[in-house]
Amino acid sequence: MAAPIKFESPRRNAHEELLERLERAPAEHAEALLAFCDLLQGLHDRGVLDAANGALSSGNFILDTVVETANAPENIRAIRNLLILSKVLSDIDPDVLGSLLGAVPKALQQVSSDKNSAPGMLSLLQKFNSRDSRRGMAFAANLLESLGKRLGEKKGG
Fold first, then answer.
1. What is the pLDDT of residues 12-37, one digit of tens each?
2. Contact 141, 147 (CB under 8 A)
3. Are the C-beta atoms of 113 and 106 separated by less than 8 Å?
4. Can you tell me the distance from the alpha carbon of 157 to that of 154, in angstroms, rounded to the nearest whole number?
5. What's the burial of 136, exposed, middle or buried (CB within 10 Å: 0-12/13-18/19+)?
């Protein structure tokens, strides 16, 4: 009968393998290392690294301050309101919003063009008779009606 062959795998030395990879890295990744050095120098020149180092060294102070500030009731309301406003803005057609925002400066310019005289009641009533004014008043009436319904739901519910 044949004698079994003993096989011993060579021991791996992970530390030596890492050192060998590190020695080969500059030659294999020269272009990437140079680009990284340029980036690092740019961050240093602009003071970003100093700011990051200061933030890290201040430890939990900055985090505690941010959390304490964010937990204030008025800031919680502000964050909730911003989320609601972002939802409202996402529901509005950009063309309609653009028209509304474009109308504001034009109306202000028309009103402020003659600072010394105010329009008479008759001229105001004539403006209300125009098709555009009626369209604007319909928008305002619909907005007020929707607001009243919502306020009634909050109060009743």
1. 888 989 999 999 999 999 999 999 99
2. no
3. no
4. 5
5. middle
pLDDT of residue 97: 87
Q: Considering just the CA atoms, what is the radius of gyration of the chain in Å?
A: 35
> Buried b vs exposed e over 21-50: b needs ≥16 C-beta within 10 Å?
eeeeeeeeeeeeeeeeeeeeeeeeeeeeee
Q: How far is CA 149 from CA 82, 91, 139, in A?
A: 22, 19, 15
Contact between 26 and 33 under an 8 Å Cβ cutoff? The reply is yes
- The sign of the CA dihedral 102, 105, 110, 113 is negative
Write out pLDDT tens, residues 116-138. 677 788 888 888 888 988 888 99
Distances (CA, A) of 37 to 29, 30, 31: 12, 10, 10
